[in-house]
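Two entries, shown back to back:
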Amino acid sequence: LGILFLALFFWGHYLVGLAGWTEMIILFLGVLLLLLEIFVIPGFGIAGISGIILILVGIFLSLVKQPFSAPQAQLNQAFYTLSFSIILTFSGIILLWKFLPHTALWKRIILSYSETKKEGFRSSADLKSYLGKNGISLTALRPSGRAQIEAKTLDVITGGEFIDKDKKIKVIEVLGNKIIVSEDK
């Protein structure tokens, strides 16, 4: 959206003769340096600062009809316009940063609750307690199926063998959320 508005700004200034190809090339190089800093070069250094400076110079030059032979009043007006725009932008960012998190819109679009163990949430059950326990296969295990272990119905798998329904089983291993069983003979 920002790039679209910047393009509209330059297009309008180009149509009335305020911005030429020089200003657009300077702005393009600034954006290119800034993107290079963001996506290629780690950290924030010379390329990023140079990009920001080139963007500001490109915008400043597009506010003046003949930048190198313009009267001082026209240069001052361009400088004041650019300075006011920068101050207004940063003021808007600060106000949004301070007040937006307290609005109803923010509360609708941002997840503000966390699901922690302390509050009773867990990402997966701790199945290690079933290790070594006995149970009954509720379905045929070929090699996966359902079994009842300690009065709970659980999804289980075998090590590859088939176990018929209603057979005694024993939990031999627990890997994450997988319960591995074998027939208890």
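entry 2 starts here
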Amino acid sequence: MSKAKIGLGCVTFGREIDRDDSVVLLDAAMERQRAEARRNWAGSGSAADESVWFDIRDRVGATEFLGYTTEVADGAIVALVVDGTEVEEAGAGTEIELVVNQTPFYGESGGQQGDVGRLKTDGAEIVISDTQKKLGDLHIHRGTISEGTVKVGDAGVFTVEHGRRSSLRAHHSATHLLHEALRRRLGDHVTQKGSMVAPDRLRFDISHPRAIEAEDLREIEREVNARIRLNTPVDTRLMTPDEAIEQGAMALFGEKYG
């Protein structure tokens, strides 16, 4: 079997790409990759109009996420979608989905629900009721225009609802505390199989060969609550997956991190 060389998002399977034809080959490979992604998406049960996000992603690129350091930030609208179709503008009362160049809003992923809040431009205000993440790095803000008219190209201020974000952050941290307590009590075979992180609760799915005994549950709960009461400060540090693992982080259930 030939050795695969991976770089710039393409696989060459043992063949060095000549400098003269590298751009042509790369463009062709990327187009095949996009076409395959579209076919897989269409076959996944998603609505047909979801394909609009591929066109938007190809045109505007990834959304820059600012939410690790702020809950309020400026942003410019680069795409507007109404009922699955791109539009140039929309008026008061319209339910819209919008994409901006940068945002403090977390898009739902990894089981954690997306942020809600408000976007205020010079001529409009939008109540954002959900934030999703499409194609891995495209943040979609869903909401209703409460007043005014919104146009592609408008700049505005995005404000995340602080209380809800704080609750989500706390429950996200609690999943890690719970995972560690489960492994301490039940054994290193315990791995995360899924989770749900909401403002008012969390769910944590694990692998274990039998029902957990009542005494074990009490001890796990006691340990997690004891760690919560320590009120240890939490800070955010951005690093590569390898750097995180070197510092003690655990990659869970084969999930991709990056």
